[in-house]
């Protein structure tokens, strides 16, 4: 557990110091700030819940050029490209994690307000999950963040490009993209978006059929997994509630997008859905990240007092406790758990499974 907690303590104290001293931040500031966490990610052995499957996928590509495991076309292309360039399975997984991290540092380095969100919220809630567990959805959500930034900047073509990339890496990023598209673009562009989607269905029915088959398979998988108790998802809901109330309290009297209410309602509905299906927990995670993206792109409008940041720090402590609880929960047949942590050179095969 120390390997996960030390980077959190370091990042929290250094980021708060940078923030309150009003030091200008950039991409390289965040690289330095997150260096301990990056070392934990890159130097790990068979650690991280889903790492086993991604290592096995790249190992198949290395040995056979193909794999019976099927993922989204964008992620498969990236995996094959890394193997083609000579990366070992373990190096390939580490490189994907570094790409995700680099995108996060880029999109959260525009201001001190965004940097503190990355350090206090994104890191404890998502960073290890993005880079050591669900690296597919992690990379997709990072690219989706970049896409939404372009949407706020009204750079619609760039939004479309990055949105498509995010979608092709992992389909669940569509939840994030559609939520922001529904509010941030004019109706004529929404009609254009629907027209493009319809044209895609007509021109490429085989690809659309493949997409629907993947969604169907995911839904079937989720339908067989039920939330273990009535309180499942209560932690993420509480975190989103704290972010929601904190934003509204310090934004009183100012104009803000009603999207913040929509995101909270979606989180609440997902919490209710989680009582019946594991998919609800996945939706909660997606909408929780949507709330952070919203705060990221609206924090410039707030003259942030020190109390706002202190409240974020309180949410951050609760978030890291939530992460600690999740990784210490024993799951049956888990092949590569987060604990105990060990380095890649301690494995029987340092470069692969």
UniProtKB/TrEMBL annotation:
Residues in coiled coil: none
What are the UniProt keywords, alphabetically?
A: Membrane, Transmembrane, Transmembrane helix
Where do the TM regions start and end?
6-23, 30-57, 77-105, 117-139, 159-184, 191-210, 230-249, 256-273, 308-327
Which Pfam family, any one of them, does this sequence belong to? EpsG
Superkingdom of origin: Bacteria
Q: Does the keyword Transmembrane helix apply?
A: yes
- List the InterPro entries hit by this protein, alphabetically: EpsG-like
What is the recorded name of this protein? EpsG family protein
Per the UniProt record, the source organism is Chryseobacterium shigense
Lineage of source species = Bacteria, Pseudomonadati, Bacteroidota, Flavobacteriia, Flavobacteriales
